[in-house]
Specification:
80 residues, alpha/beta, Rossmann fold, 4 helices, 4 strands, 39% helix
Length: 80
């Protein structure tokens, strides 16, 4: 039996919030980061973990997922 990967989720807004919550409910260890920090609270309350910053999230995760509003947001998060 293999261990489930740790998931990092960047962007927990209208779509990312429910997606990351579902991963927590499915038993995954999920680390979340969002530009608006208050949006991560429901995921943390459900058992997810708040990353201090994106670098912290990427160090902890085996898989990183993003759910961001547009190309500019992706570029800012990935390259900024």
């Amino acid at each position: 039996m293999s261990q489930q990967p740790v998931i990092g989720f960047i962007g927990v807004g209208l779509m990312g919030g429910p997606m990351s919550l579902r991963l927590v409910q499915a038993g995954y260890q999920v680390w979340v980061w969002n530009r608006s920090r208050e949006k991560i609270q429901p995921v943390v309350d459900a058992g997810g973990h708040a990353a201090a910053d994106i670098a912290d999230l990427t160090r902890r995760a085996d898989i990183v997922m993003t759910c961001l509003t547009d190309t500019e947001a992706v570029s800012s998060v990935v390259f900024g």
